[in-house]
UniProtKB/TrEMBL annotation:
Residues under site feature: Interaction with target DNA: 76
A single GO molecular function term of this UniProt record: single-stranded RNA binding
Pfam families named in the record: Endonuclease_5
Cofactor(s) the protein requires to work: Mg(2+)
Function: DNA repair enzyme involved in the repair of deaminated bases. Selectively cleaves double-stranded DNA at the second phosphodiester bond 3' to a deoxyinosine leaving behind the intact lesion on the nicked DNA.
Annotated InterPro entries: Endonuclease-V (IPR007581)
Protein name: Endonuclease V
GO CC terms in record: cytoplasm
Species this chain originates from: Chitinophaga tropicalis
Family: Belongs to the endonuclease V family.
DNA sequence: GCGACAG
DNA sequence: ATCTTGTCGC
């Protein structure tokens, strides 16, 4: 798959088309393996380092990870992040010997102007339940959640609850959680609350971020690796 | 027209 | 996103 030559107009059409495939509904499956996905790159470089980390649930202990390096020309444009990151992530996905029951992607799910954030986009293409966990808001508004860890406040866009601002640690900036595919807002939040550890960023995405950075700096190699 | 704007 | 030193607070 290659999105590099798309214009924004064409990318928008793809989003509007893929949106028909999104299924926002109550979770109806158990979670034994959860995963985190992220990419890393050097500023001004077209090389991206993508990775997916598998962790046992609910222990959150890492069990394996898949790393892929790829050239990407599509630029970062707010609202079109998926066109830049999804192709590389799909490469990492195909390399997995075991697929997770659920994937957490660094970015938004349906908390997106066209309800097609990267988590929704990837979830539909890979046909996997997905949740978006972003560090910043793309669209919508919310009231500041309580300062206590676990406090949440609905993220609203055009009168619709598209996600929540979730306080992952006491008195620390919240993260923004939204379902991507085969999940709903309450379900996505419920799962993410079970992914909280010692840091602001929930474990799946935090481990994925650390892993792709080690990959980019040459401390880990491309491929599928089991941990331990 | 103006401001906002995932990674 | 990445780079990067110091500073504030639990």
């Amino acid at each position: 798959m290659n999105y590099d030559t798309l214009t924004i107009t064409e990318a928008t059409k793809i989003q509007n088309q893929l949106r028909e495939e999104i299924r926002i509904r109550e979770r109806n499956f158990p979670i034994d393996i959860i995963a985190g996905a992220d990419i890393s790159f050097n500023k001004f470089s077209t090389t991206v380092y993508a990775g997916i980390v598998l962790l046992r649930f609910p222990s959150l202990l890492p069990v394996a990870y898949s790393l892929v390096k790829k050239e990407v020309l599509f630029p970062y444009v707010p609202g079109y992040l998926a066109f830049r990151e999804v192709p590389a992530l799909l490469g990492a996905w195909e390399q997995l010997a075991v697929k997770p029951d659920l994937l957490v992607v660094d970015g938004h799910g349906i908390a997106h102007p066209r309800r097609m954030g990267i988590a929704a986009h990837f979830g539909v293409l890979a046909q996997v339940p997905a949740i978006g966990c972003a560090k910043k808001v793309l669209c919508g508004g919310y009231e500041e959640p309580g300062l206590q860890q676990g406090s949440e406040s609905p993220l609203i866009y055009k009168d619709e609850v598209v996600g929540v601002a979730l306080r992952t640690k006491n008195a620390v900036k919240p993260v923004y959680v939204s379902p991507g595919h085969k999940m709903d807002v309450p379900g996505a939040v419920e799962v993410m609350k079970q992914c909280l550890g010692r840091y602001r960023i929930p474990e799946p995405t935090r481990l994925a971020h650390n892993t792709v950075n080690l990959f980019r700096t040459g401390e880990l190699s491309e491929g599928y690796h089991e941990v331990g």
